[in-house]
Amino acid sequence: MEGENLPPASSSGVSSASTASSAVNASRNIRPRLTPGWRFGVYFIAFAGLLWLNVWAYLGRFDYYVLGIIMMMGINTILATSLNLINGFAGQFAIGHAGFMAIGAYTAALLTMHARVSFALALVLGGLAAGAVGLFIGIPTLRLRGDYLAIATLGLGEIIRVIIVNLPITGGAFGLSGILPYTTFFWVEGAVILTLVVLSNFIRSSHGRALLAVREDEFAAEAVGVPTTYYKVLAFVMGSFFAGVAGGLFAHYLLFIDPSQFGIIRSIDILIMVVLGGLGSLSGSVVAAIVLTALPEYLRGFAEYRMVAYSALLILIMLVRPAGLFGRVEIWELLNRGRPCSRPGAGPGAGPGPGPGPGSTGPGPEPRTKAESGMKPGLEPAGRQEVTG
Amino acid sequence: MAVQPEPPLLEVESLTMAFGGLVAVSQFNLRLERGELVALIGPNGAGKTTVFNCLTGVYTPTAGSIRLRGRNIVGWPPHRVARAGVARTFQNIRLFRDLEVLDNVRIAAHLRQQATLAEAILRLPRFRREERRLAAEAYELLELVGLSHRAHQLAKTLPYGEQRRLEIARALATHPVLLLLDEPAAGMNPQETDTLTGLIDLIRDRFGLTILLIEHDMRLVMRIAPRILVLDYGQTIAEGSPEQIRTDPRVIQAYLGEEAVG
Amino acid sequence: MVEIIQQLINGLSLGSIYALIALGYTMVYGVLKLINFAHGDVYMVGAFAGFFAATSFGWGFFPTLLFAMAVAAVLGLLIERVAYRPLRNASRIAALITAIGVSLFLENLGILILHPDPRAFPDLIGLRTFEIGPLLINNRQLVIIGTSVLLMLLLHYIVTRTKMGKAMRAVAEDGETSRLMGINIDRTIAFTFALGSALAAAAGVLVGIYYTRIDPLMGFMPGLKAFVAAVLGGIGLIPGAMLGGLVMGIAEVFVVAFISSSWKDGVAFAILILILLLKPSGLLGRAAREKA
User: Fold this and answer.
1) Are B66 and B121 in a shared domain?
2) Quick check: B99 and A13 CB within 8 A?
3) What CATH class has C2-278?
4) Cβ within 8 Å, pair C292-B19
5) Do residue C100 and residue A137 have CB atoms under 8 angstroms apart?
6) What's B113's domain CATH number?
7) d(CA A269, CA A96)
8) What are the CA-CA distances from residue A362 to residues A274, B127, C75 (Å)?
């Protein structure tokens, strides 16, 4: 639309006014909410679970296989939440997350192997390398409106593979072996907590709100002074950084890496965690990462159907719930109070509270609101009905 | 012409905007002194919104200059123009629909925040203080436009008239010196329009704002705008007081012409 | 010098294949402003449809080509109807995720049903190589270039002369206005998908003939490259897609011939970054005017 003048009293105004006011008259928010007893129970279970996990890991009671799965859950949590920052919060479509993971993995592994750099520093440098590449790609693509980021990140995965194969130091297509086994449960746990604290504090700040504004309406965001390109690049670079850190952890856990581990399939694995957990829900990503890491282990017999099922699931979720399966709601919002849910949609399916392991996500009650005045945003897909303009 | 000690708040000279062969605005001139309220009227497609889009940096004009407090802002990106003190509302409301009403306003206050990203992530004292201040300020603005009781609803759930007012609150949160209102009364019933008129008067007094207004509701325009500019086919065809405009033959012609077509 | 001309000929045949795929991207982007990620996989399905037509029915080149194009057109219609149309008013990111989903679905279904191993594409056109002085050119290259030129001329005719083609251009220009002018948007978009998919299928059959092997994942890289070709020429512009495809094919062949074949897939990406930095509107695009 050219944005030139519509007729003075457009009918769209009248109709949307009436639908909206009828929604106002509708009943108050009746989002299912946990009673204080339940809430305490959930927190207690989460806390106890985390404690048990730490003690058991400290005592070395997990067998190697189980510990491996737990560590992959953590690594995938970092990957999914950092991709969610880009896709769910900033509203930009990036899909080559495995590429950034590869950069972090190779950088960190080569540093600890050849330069005797300490593990922590190697992880950070791996993250920075990934972030730098993110900056290099982000600046030309993100200043344009449109979907160039999607194609650029998809292509990035391929170019990184080409570069790794061609560099003398990476072991080429045969892979890099002899990586030192630095990654432990506690390293992963520390990195997960750090990632979650940084991301959630970022999101719940004026900088984070600027990011949401970009997602909602770039044009209006610019008009109130939000430098949209800056924030898009910021989110993209931050997301890339954490993917790089996750890659470093991954390399020092697996001890052998080759380019095929960072292909499109891994990118899609991460994407589906984000979509399933909800575009714009950090805690959703955590739960999805945990569940979707464990699930394939149980369904090993169906491995060849997994990608078919994943892709069908992606399409289906988008058709039914375009904000992701659990929408934009954070789990603690369910726990703490009946805030109006950010997404209209199937009310009862909005997510059962007692997810088993999001213990590390509960950074206390949010200092935001006491919004009992909230109202139900209508059960119908309200977004659809103002296509009048 | 002698150099004045204080340049006018806004000075637009020979602004021309062409899209390919189509000249949407041609040789547009406007001078706004601090505290003025001027209305921009004209038939549909006259180029009014294009003028707004040029003033706010959405379009880079084909020719001409736009000086805000003496500084030429042509070529600036929209967010920089907003930071320089030009705020606007949109003809077809553009709120952050899936965010809370309060956040809509707080985002606009964003540009005055001092705390860095690192301070935000570490939750340092300055960040906390600032968050409290921004929230308080946002509540105040919501109070002003009569929406504080809606603070935690999603913007898209507000009735139409309230959405318009929220857009004004959001614009005010950027602490503008110049406010551009693009058909603020469009789609409103007479009662809502009255509320709006009161609100415009109120914010003008309270913030000492300069306002440029596009509006089709002549009752509103005649009541609050001491000076009116009439655009037709991108040309300024008349300028003057409501009295002068009402009787100007070219204006009558332009509107009648439109009537005949539409 | 001879070597350069020789590679130019090789690049031209690869480039016309990219151009055929790029056309579908650019046309769909024109009417929907959506990157149809599944387009490369439609090309794959087209190649397999051709494969089965040639092996099971024993058809010759032209019936095989037409059959593949028809199958792909139907598939294109189906994808548009099931996956994209319901999301036309949804957020951009939802549409893109769906597009990725469709692409993966086709690829993985292909792996499941067709088996991931490559298959030998039947020899529809016996290989004959001509020597023109020091230059080598074979009849397959001629068929590829010839068929591509023919299809592009046909497309040009459809877009400029027929009612449906004009509707396509109108919708690409301004969907809302064309709806008000009485153009059936749904039908126009569906037609665009069918047309673009048919062209991709033609490219699939030609690639089968040229490289003699096809597999379920063959669409991924060419799809990516063809999209870059479309951006290179100016996304949304039909001549741009043709030019971009040719440039892309020639660039790739040159890199393989004069640098190293292991950098082959890097070219597309380097071109993409360069074009986004230097001229985001593409070689043939006018400076893009951001819409309010």
Assistant:
1) no
2) no
3) mainly alpha
4) no
5) no
6) 3.40.50.300
7) 11
8) 19, 21, 47
Is A147 near chain C, with CB under 8 Å?
A: yes
Residues B213 and B247 in one domain: yes
Residues 204-233 of C with CB under 8 A from A: 220-221, 224, 227-228, 231
Structure tokens at B216: 């089709």
DSSP letters, A147-212, are: SHHHHHHHHHHHHHHHHHHH-STT-GGG-EE-------HHHHHHHHHHHHHHHHHHHTSHHHHHHH
Domain boundaries, chain C: 2-278
> Of B128, B143, B175, which residue sits at a domain end?
B175
Query: Does residue A368 have a pLDDT over 70?
Result: no
Residues in C closer than 8 angstroms to B53, CB to CB, are 292
**CB–CB of B19 and C289 under 8 A?**
yes
Is B72 a domain residue? yes
User: pLDDT tens for residues A90-129?
Assistant: 999 998 899 999 999 999 999 999 999 999 999 999 999 9
Which subunits count as partners of chain B given 3+ CB pairs below 8 Å? A, C
User: Which of B128, B153, B175 lies at the terminal end of a domain, its last residue?
Assistant: B175
Please tell me whether residues B189 and B166 are part of one structural domain.
Answer: no
Residues B28 and B104 in one domain: no
Quote the domain boundaries for residue B68.
Answer: 7-85+176-262
pTM of this structure: 0.85
Complex ipTM value: 0.90
Residues 6+ apart with CB under 8 A from C91: A91, A322
Q: Tell me if residue B40 falls in helix, strand or coil.
A: strand
Q: How many CB pairs under 8 A join A and B?
A: 189
The residues pairing with B22 across neighbouring beta strands, listed in sequence order, are B19
Is B65 among the domain residues? yes
The residues with which B11 forms a beta bridge, in sequence order, are B31, B67
* B100 and B169 Cβ atoms separated by less than 8 Å: no
User: For chain A, which domains are there?
Assistant: 64-329 (1.10.3470)
Total of domains in chain B: 2
Q: What is the structure's pLDDT at A46?
A: 82
